Amino acid sequence: MVMSAAIFPGENEPLLYLGEFPVRLITLLVALHSAAMITASLLLAAGHGALLDLFIYSSTAVAHGQIWRLATYAFVASPSVWFLLEMVMLYYFGREVENGLGWKRFGILYAGLILLGPLLLQAFGYGGKPQTFAGAQEINFAVFAAFVAMHPGAQFFFGLAARWVFLGLLAISSLQRLADHQPPQVLVLIFSSILAIMLMRRAGFEEPLFGYGFQWSLPGLKTPRTKFSATSVGMRTTAMGNHGSKAQATPSEARAHLDPELVMDRLLEKISSKGMKSLSSSERASLENARQAILQRGGTNPK
Fold it and tell me: What's the start-to-end Cα distance of the chain, in Å?
């Protein structure tokens, strides 16, 4: 099978095609993590595990010019059941985040998360507390935080909303690191999650994270009032009224048929309350037409 050499510039398109099959950035990231884990396992089995020390993060080594460690540490992992679960979760949640942001912005988010941890830990190193670090647990947890920022009301175990699962996992992970005498990594975990959530807010996913109308407020940072990703469905969980009878269209409803963003808004609310299967074939066509229209004009809101 021949790999296509074309790389698509559209943010909501796949990164590339393998024959006829689309390849997403999240697929390549999971493959890279997995390949790195297999390589590390073979090195350990061959008695060359010391080579891995060249790739883990070390604040002392970075201070002496080994800057590649700022990125390579994230791909140093040993085989375990937890690694398998981590990759499954990264693919599941990362795919949704990539669909919502587009592969370019998702790539920027993931790269920023990789660099954030070492930069924070480097400050501790310069403060006289050398730090070492390996693995991508904090990074991948931040991807889950980004998913929660998109769908805070998504249902998880025993009907728990994603927002509460996120808080529970954040608390347990923080306590685990504190028990292991790793308070700097607690900061990495928290700040990585905050960064992911803030970038999702910046991208236009504005549903209150914990059910309240809290807004991020930073100097010079203005979040769009309403901006939807054209490929992400179910980004809102606002209940939509159930109108049983057909009434004459109001002016706002009539305008919704002309404004693609209002069409998108109305159909996404229906999907949130009733599911994707509730859309008729004509509504699915309207959703796709609205998506294309928003993409063509850059997703900006009309004045």
Answer: 49
Token reading at 183:
């308070």
Report the distance separating Cα 163 and Cα 52, nearest Å.
36
- At 281, list the tokens: 């074939």
Strand spans (E) along the chain = 16-18, 21-23, 57-58, 132-133
Q: Which residues sit opposite 3 in a β-bridge?
A: 18
The domain limits of the chain are: 16-202, 228-239+252-303
For every one of its 303 residues, what pLDDT tens digit does the chain have, with 9 covering 90 and above?
Answer: 333 333 334 455 667 777 777 788 999 999 999 999 999 999 999 999 889 999 999 999 999 999 999 999 999 998 889 999 999 999 999 999 998 898 899 999 999 999 999 999 998 888 888 999 899 999 999 999 999 999 998 888 778 899 999 999 999 999 999 998 889 999 999 999 999 999 999 888 888 887 654 444 444 444 444 444 433 433 333 333 344 444 444 444 444 445 777 777 777 777 766 666 667 777 777 777 877 777 776 644 444
Distance of CA 35 to the CA centre of its chain: 22
Where does 151-303 have alpha helices with state H? 162-179, 183-202, 251-256, 260-274, 281-296
Q: CB count, 10 Å around CB of 84?
A: 12
Per CATH, the number for 16-202 is: 1.20.1540.10
Exposed e or buried b per residue across 257-294, where buried means at least 16 C-beta atoms within 10 angstroms of its C-beta:
eebbbbbbbbbbbbbbbeeeeebeeeeeebbeebbebb
Query: Which residues are CB-neighbours of 221 under 8 A, at least 6 positions away?
Result: 202
Which residue carries 């993931």 as its tokens? 110
